[in-house]
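Subgroup meeting minutes
Present: P.N., E.W., G.H.
Scribe: E.W.

1. P.N. recapped why we're keeping a running log of single-chain structure predictions: easier to compare across weeks, and new members can see raw inputs and outputs side by side.
2. G.H. added today's entry (494 aa).
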Amino acid sequence: MTPQGLPTPEDVHAAYVQGEEAVLALVGMLTALILNLQARVNALEDQLGKNSRNSSKPPSSDGLQKPRPRSLRTRSGKKSGAQPGHAGHTLPAAAQPDHCQLYPVERCGSCGTSLQAVPPSTYERRQVFELPPVRMEVTEHRAEIKHCPHCGQTTKGAFPPEVTQPVQYGPALKAQAVYFNQYQFIPLERTSEMFADLYGHPVGEGTLEAATQEMAAAVIPANAQVKGQLRTAEPVVHFDESGLRVTGKLQWLHSASTARLTSYAVHAKRGSAAIDAIGILPTLSGRAVHDHWQAYFTYPDIAHSLCNAHHLRELAFIEERYQQGWAAEMAKLLVEIKAAVEEARPGHSQLPEAKRAEFVMRYDRVIEEGLQANPPPVFAEEQPKKRGRIKQSPPKNLLDRLVAHKREVLAFMDDFHVPFDNNQAERDIRMVKLHQKISGCFRSQEGAERFCEIRSYISTARKNGQRVLEALKKALAGSPFVPSFLSAHAASPG
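Output recorded in log:
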């Protein structure tokens, strides 16, 4: 045998001399080797055939050979650009400008006659919007110290509760430091340079770190209320997770969110251990929307819904890689159901029963077609049995999921509160992944946890129409922003 396990010419000749039984054994060994190599080639070709359009790979992994985009949306018939009736966005003139600069007319531009005594008939106005010069402002707080002439005791005036040090920075500056570093993802060194350039006063990196710590502690009560709302009061909550580098090691960023609320957490694990520690999903009262990560299904008492955007990408891959027609039919059906739901949504909470039954029948028919094209793998009796699950093709794996979780795949059809996809969670994850692209990783576990606290608070504030900088100032002032509907729920009995 060669080092690759292939028979040499001498081995073939020896088997021929030994007779039929030896030849059959040699052919069986070669058949098993070919099947193993064929499986490896298929797996490698599957891997090479995946891109951001037909799998969950990010667009950055496509390299220079990006796939040609193919949108699932149909043409609306409208021209591109702003539609009729759209209000344009231009810089409006200020009704009450802060300053007014007058340019007088002293002589006639034609004959040279003096016009100094002639009043102007009207003015041509032009306005320039500009930033005023900004500098650091220092306020000195002085507490009087007096000696009582009657009893001899010394009494000192009381400083405001926020003034605790002989020299310190105020909340507006600290909020802006957190805004630059945690929201705009500007590294500490460049944030310090920005303060020097903008205000003529560099702020040390240690001070910036301390401001981040103070902010993370200040927003914890608001984030705790958000977690409680997500766990007990929201009908649908989106979940997702993504790898995050912390101290050079792979950890996992977990998100739970709605269109109005966001909660992030970082954990060393991806599965049930992390989900239990975060504490939202295990006692969720609403429906959990997610991809098909198996750890989510370890909570069977919770209603689940699967992301159909993931299914559409997988179906596109199967159609391209394996040329199986059922995949295109299933993708077309899912998009058709989505369009029917959007059309019926005004005034309804679910599809009419007849329409629903038709879609379910077509779903089952496409699944049956796919199962006929992808029968379970059959192994010869002489082939050695392997431990663990039997390896199947990607089409068969997807079909099994579409069968086992049919109710979760079509949940958006039965309850219009349930979305077609999990794009909300993916949008919420995206900004945190952007931080990793800029900074590479978190240098400490504490830094990663503080980042999750602050970004949870910022994301929730933005979703509720709050200006980020103002929301950060409120947090440092001891009154972090909490959505009004959440406060009302928290105040209600039970």
